[in-house]
Model the fold of this input.
Amino acid sequence: MKRLDVFLKEQKKPELSIIIGEFVKSGKEIYKQLQNIGINGYYSESDEKNASGDSPKKIDIYAHDLLVENLKSTSLVSIIGSEESKELIKCGDFISNKVYDVYFDPLDGSSNLECSGGTGTIFGIFPSSSLSCGDEEEREYKFPKGRDIVCSGYLYYSSSLILTITFGNGTFVFTFDGEHFVENIKSPLVFTDKCQRIYSVNEGSKDKWNDILREQIEVFKKENYTLRYIGSMVADVHRTLLYGGVFIHPTKKLRLLYECIPISFLVENCEGVSYSDATKVLDLTPESLHQKVPIVLGCKRDVYYFS
Ligand code: P6P
Done:
């Protein structure tokens, strides 16, 4: 089984590999804390409010702080955007002219922690625009276009510690075996029309659905699709990438820049599709750090905008 370090060397992108190394290092620490979460009191809410007005848990803040510290230590990251930071975090003192802007949700799905549900760190990496637009202080930061993304992935904290990643040449899955991340699931992942017939949506919010979605869910039911919904994006997406089907969040809750764009890059690299209303997610350019969008992603057979 191929190890992650071998896979990263094959990508011939040393600076990106250093950044991925920091996500992996942080992910192992976060996973360790999650395994002791009943003891370390990280369930409890911090006394902060994030940009979305949510009260993050102590573990959300822990994950955010750890990721910022580790990414800054690379001196390869110019701008950091996080669900837990109201504003962009400007780093500096670069060791190379190849620097990146990195956006992440440090711990997505943490509302599922009390019942030991799966959670994840979602990340997207873009060539830094900060150096090409003159002095930081003098210009309005331009958010990157979705298609500018060069690497994305998630760390999935569940019955095992998983890294799913793409550099734009396929989506690969690695599992932590206690010492190394190894590719023990057949990768690159590819959706086929024979993939499982699963739809994943919160049926409790059906009064907020539009007619297209309402009709499509009826079609799925008539064709005996199975409903699976965990309520944690990384968990629902990981199942969709491995088993097939479609994941839908029809309201403006998921964040475009550090959830939907990185996940859509993974999906398109599995020969799947990902739309927000009738536009491909990767064709969108965020207008703000915490912009929220609806999303429908999965295999082409099941994503109704595509059919
Ligand atoms: P709903 C978790 O709170 C989250 O941000 C995502 O991980 C998940 O996909 C979504 O919200 C669930 O939203 O509306 O079904 O509760």
Notes: The radius of gyration is 19 Å. Helices lie at 4-11, 14-35, 37-40, 58-72, 211-222, 233-243, 256-268. Residues 108-109, 111, 202, 205, 231-233, 236, 249, 253 surround 6-O-phosphono-alpha-D-fructofuranose (CB under 6 Å). The first strand starts at residue 77 and ends at 82.
